[in-house]
Amino acid sequence: MKNILGENEKIADENRKLFREKNVFVINLMGSPGSGKTTLLEKTLSKLAEKLKVAVIEGDLFTARDAERIERQKVPVVQINTAGGCHLDAAMVKRAAESLNLEELDLIIVENVGNLVCPAEFDVGENLKAVVLSITEGDDKPLKYPLIFKESAVAVLNKIDLIPFTNFNLEQARADLATIHPQIKIIETSCTKLTGLDDWCNFILENF
Amino acid sequence: MKNILGENEKIADENRKLFREKNVFVINLMGSPGSGKTTLLEKTLSKLAEKLKVAVIEGDLFTARDAERIERQKVPVVQINTAGGCHLDAAMVKRAAESLNLEELDLIIVENVGNLVCPAEFDVGENLKAVVLSITEGDDKPLKYPLIFKESAVAVLNKIDLIPFTNFNLEQARADLATIHPQIKIIETSCTKLTGLDDWCNFILENF
After folding, report:
1. Which residues 108-137 of A are in CB contact (within 8 Å) with B?
2. How far is B140 from chain A (nearest CA, A)?
3. Global pTM?
4. In what order do the strands lie in the sheet with A54-60?
5. pLDDT tens digits, residue range A47-84?
6. Which residues on chain B are in Cβ contact (under 8 Å) with A119?
7. Does the beta carbon of B60 lie under 8 angstroms from any beta carbon of chain A?
8. Predicted ipTM?
9. How many CA atoms lie within 13 A of B54 on its CB side?
């Protein structure tokens, strides 16, 4: 395991060097299956495209469903199929990036495999990690899956419109996130009610 | 990876032999973080306890929160902390089972780590696998994460009460599940509205 992570780190550093040379900022977008990562991208890519040239790398075990959804947003997209693998690694992102024209890009968003555990352990050469937590997953998830929240610069609390129909305690979740990672930025979004999406886009533009 | 799985399979077979000798039926309960595995157990353990002597093995990366919730249901519970590991393996379940009195038990439910990918690859010596899919995760999950649905005898479509607030297409999900695994039993549940819980308990009693 240490060898695998060491080899991955080496390729991640090469990716980061390449992205810096080409002036491309890279976000590694993580979260559980169904937390709403693809929908968040669908709703914000056009907003971001007003300011930045964006591409997406889509990670999935199988199918090109998410890439097809992103393609409709008229941004370049590369699908990675891990064939059952539970996370993206730096070598996969390196190969995917080779089919993008980096000279013409400002930002790549890498949508990782839906998984709140393994993706947090594998640096892909990103500038920052972001985690999407659907409030339907429950407020105990930061304490139960701390690494991904420790690693991420921002936590997007998505599907916030469903909060009246759940027992999610927003105050508790915010307190737990602050304990695990005091500097983490917390953004509340709803992709159906279209709330918080400007906050998310502004966070990206400010960190860019 | 093949070596790890081969070694795991050996211990899983030993577990299965031991459980059969002791007349204990074992269910491996899997699903994404926040799909509602622990709440499903909370709501059904007392119903099952009328007919069977049940114990629970709780798998989590960190914390004993789920085990504490299960303890309140007055059934024996053993917590496994994987310390960041993304799934339970047969050796962990073997150690956990050693602290249970198997002679006095009819059924062990193993609640796996919240993860729709890795747990499906690791046999822990169970008699059957069950997967919980919250409808808030989206109807595309069976096709995107097929292995766990192929491996499971039953798919519990949980949080069905939230369907009016989502774009989840129940017909599509059922059709995709039937394509991936024609024999899979599909049970719709809501742990807040207390619907479908008898179906779930009856499924266990019929397969027992």
Report:
1. 113-118, 121, 134, 136-137
2. 8
3. 0.96
4. A77-81, A54-60, A107-111, A25-31, A128-134, A154-158, A185-188
5. 999 999 999 999 999 999 999 999 999 999 999 999 99
6. none
7. yes
8. 0.93
9. 25
